[in-house]
């Protein structure tokens, strides 16, 4: 705005105000208010513009003009107020002040106008205007550069392939680039409606809060972490997050800068690798028992091979081709040369040759390098003590995959004696030479056989024995090892690799059971998936297979994706089990029939036996002493025989009941059982003055009644077969990890060791009835009772040195 425009505007406003003052009517209130607002706001606006744009070339004139506008505004306000309050004097004073300021403003305006029109001032003004224009041009250039930089930064942010975002310190979005929201599957609008915490995987929230607290507290200025976000589709996105905090000049947090790079594929590779390792560990674990057995057999084979290798009549050694150092040798070589194993291994084989023979040895070695073998080389070897030994050298080279010789397996045969004979029998005929050739051929065959045996051993070491299977649950694709195809008699290309193929092989009676077990395992992997089933071979035969499997991969929803497992041909085992089951069934049936027969026969025999006994007693009562001695002796024979027969039948009934009685097992103190047995045998113990010593006995799960019968039979036998002096019985218990061993030891007549097994057979006696009474069933009953409790019984004894009956009971 020029000074001239300001001047005319001022006077226009002045006269307009004077004309308004002439109109002293009430309806002028609204115009007065408007005029007061215009003058006041104009004064404020002109002062603000002058201050902001530095228009200070005429500061006094601007100040007077602003003051003039303020007085005009006051006059309008007083005009309004005078309608209600007498303010004539105040109005007059303000108008005088306004007139004075107007005159002063006019004077300053005229003086500045004349100065502006002078030539010197125009030149100065032109210079100043040029400076202002230059400053403005520089400002515009700086603004243009600043704008270009901003546009470049904006393009870098928007078109970056790495996700970038600017967030508030509270992790609310300020700005995100397309790469950021595309990685997470959102549109920009959808993403800006949430915040960083809402899309973070719940398990990573605590770690995010920790890093944010460190950034805000100043512990760190930036961080880089691998974390998970929730994709809009619901799956997890793994990213590498770089997060930094920008602060203002006062150190207060302004905003966060975040950069993310999608590493989901990298994480999937890691997951797949862990899955493969888990599968390998599972396969190793599942096959551990078979491998242990195979390893044990291989160890035996290896031990046999090592024994054959070490004790072979020839000297064997393996030599590294590049260094000529000995890698391995057998015991025969060490014995022949007098060296220990550490003295030979790592030593050059050329050092073992006699100096006179080293040139021949080097020549043989050169032949070996050219042909890969040496046959029947005659060399002189020097022992550790300095003596020499003539040997026949045979060497076979072994090459790597590139065909380069790596090491040799050599044999030295002591031919010292042969050399001596050759020196003495140089004139030997062709027959002898032919025999030598045959011997050499036999040696070659032996070496070849040894090589073949070694190859078979190495092949056995690599063999795994059983087969495996792998089922992709989503695609239904199934693969099997070669062993399984061999079991079925098919070639690999003959059958499609699918789960339906496996179902078509499986026996219909087994398929429903397997599917039920499979469904349970897929729902709960802790339920073992182990089963035996039948498969149909190519020749339409059924084979039994033992299989197991396990789910090894799931999706994010926990649904199974993949199963792997092992299988083993158990057809022979199943046949053996079926045969064993048939034999056991036959045996159980025979035992039941035998027990029933014994019980019925014994029961039916008692009735006629009672009649015989009754009538024999009548004969004895009526006719004893009336007949001759022969008749009386016959009557006694009949009576004794009937009594023995009754005892035998009773024992036979007891033996039959032992096999059929229900076993009522309960925790029982053996000492309490023994106390009852002692009470039952109290009279005979006192009569025979038997000393019974009982050690501390355990509490065991047994049938107290049947176990009491075992102790009563053993103690009764010990008393029956005691020595003439005072009998002594010692009862004690020992234990191992699984069983208690109870021993009943006496100082009786003892038992010949060759009969220790016979005494537990029913009706087997070692003494005549005239010497010792009994039926020979008591120990058989003891054996059956102990076996029903899951134990075993035996006796250790010598004639004249007492007997020690022992039996075991499970803990």
Automatic annotation (TrEMBL):
Pfam families xref list: HATPase_c (PF02518), HisKA (PF00512), PAS_3 (PF08447), PAS_9 (PF13426)
Catalytic activity: ATP + protein L-histidine = ADP + protein N-phospho-L-histidine
Domain named Histidine kinase: residues: 600-811
InterPro entries referenced in this protein's UniProt entry, alphabetically: HATPase_C_sf (IPR036890), HATPase_dom (IPR003594), His_kinase_dom (IPR005467), HisK_dim/P_dom (IPR003661), HisK_dim/P_sf (IPR036097), PAC (IPR001610), PAS (IPR000014), PAS-assoc_C (IPR000700)
Its EC number(s): 2.7.13.3
Keywords: Coiled coil, Kinase, Membrane, Phosphoprotein, Transferase, Transmembrane, Transmembrane helix, Two-component regulatory system
GO molecular function, one term: phosphorelay sensor kinase activity
Keyword Mitochondrion: no
Domain PAC: 223-275, 375-427, 529-582
Gene3D superfamilies: 1.10.287.130, Histidine kinase-like ATPase, C-terminal domain, PAS domain
EC primary class: transferase
Coiled coil, from the record: 566-593
Keyword Lipid metabolism attributed: no
PAS domain segment(s): 176-219, 301-372, 453-525
Protein name per Swiss-Prot or TrEMBL: histidine kinase
Transmembrane segments: 29-49, 61-85
